[in-house]
Amino acid sequence: MSAVATAIDAARAEGRGALIGYLPIGYPDLQTSIEAAVTLAEAGVDILELGPPYSDPVMDGPVIQEATNAALQAGFRMRDTFTAVREVSARTDVPVLVMTYWNPVVQYGVSRYADDLSAAGGAGLITPDITPDAASD
Fold it and tell me: Could you say which of 32, 38, 67, 95 would form a disulfide bridge with 27 (CB–CB 3.0 to 4.6 Å)?
C-alpha cells in the first residue's frame, strides 16, 4: 500500500477526512518554503502537496500565480523540487506529493523525473493537466 493510501486510511479509521496541505516550493525562498512545509506536517496535515513554480500557471489562481512568479524571479530551478522533497521527507513522516504541470516533467525527462522524485523520498506525482495520450508515461 502506498504512503498516501495509508495516510488516507488512517484518517478514515479515525472517522475524519484526510487533511492535505499545499504549498508552492520556493516562495518566498527555497528554505522558507521547506520550513513552511515541515510546519504544516508538524501541525497535523496528513499529506503534503508541494508545487514547483511553472512559467505559465494557467490553472492556478492569482495567489499561487503570484507566489510561483516570485519564486521563479528569485531563481527557483527544477532541481530545487527534489531538494525540497528530500528535506521535508527527511524531517517528517507525512507523505510528500509533487503537484505540477505535465510540461515540466516532460522537459526534465519523465524517467529522470520519476527517478529523482523517488530518490528524494517523494510519495507520488499529481499532474492534473496530463492528456490521456501521455498518461501511459
Answer: 67
**38: domain CATH number?**
3.20.20.70
Q: Phi and psi (nearest 5°) for 27?
A: -110, 130
Give residue 112's pLDDT: 97
Residues with a catalytic annotation lie at: 49, 60
pLDDT at 57: 67
For the chain, percent helix, then strand, then coil, each to nearest 5? 50, 10, 40
Give every residue of the chain whose pLDDT is below 50, as ranges.
Answer: none
Q: Could you give the dihedral angle defined by the CA atoms of residues 115, 86, 25 and 32, in that order, rounded to the nearest 10 degrees?
A: -170
- C-alpha 75/C-alpha 6 separation (Å) is 35
19 in a structural domain:
no
Within 13 Å and on the Cβ side, how many CA atoms surround 26?
Answer: 24
pLDDT for position 85 = 98
Question: Are the CB atoms for 68 and 57 separated by under 8 Å?
Answer: yes
Q: Domain total for the chain?
A: 1
Give the list of residues 6+ apart from residue 94 with CB closer than 8 angstroms, or none: 7, 40, 41, 45, 46, 47, 48, 88
